[in-house]
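Shift notes (night). Ran Transposase, Ptta/En/Spm, plant while the centrifuge was going.
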Amino acid sequence: MASHVREDIDPNNYLQFDIIRDYPPHSMSLEVWRGLCRRWNTPGWLNKSMSGSRNRRSADISGKSSRHTSGSMGYAKRRARMKRKMNEEPNFKQIFLETHLTKECKQKLWDGDIDIYNLKELTFCTKRAEKVYRIYCSYRMVDLEAWVEEERNLIVSRLEEERDLLATRLDEERNAREELQKQYQEFMKNWRPPSN
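Came back to this:
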């Protein structure tokens, strides 16, 4: 868009933020666009952009273009892989440990040398991950079926209260409508058209 207005803009150089900041896309306000351009025009962001460009231009051993996400794996894919490996559905705690323990510690866990409840033997990849796991383990685990039953009972109770309230309101509305109908009939009985 900016290249249509100013011919001195190189259409292949997307880093001319001082020029293109005045020409936002149709779907964006000028203020938001300028804020993005300011952010993109920082040394950290420019380095990240150049690094990403280099990574996309490079190829892996099969000759395919490299993606930035080549090392990461989504939750669903990891869960499915663990399910195949364990022959059962992994729980949240097992998936968390699989993604937050060191490689050596994970191997010990899979080999059965340590268990998931012994915090002294677990080696986390970061202090933050260890802190989160400690907090998670400190909560009292409840019987899931009992919890679901209790929640169901609460929901049913709320729905019954709502039903009763709606029935009461409906009766009040019906009575008010009947009263209005009586008043209308009384009015029509006594009403006389004005004589000309």
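The mean pLDDT is 81. The radius of gyration is 34 Å.
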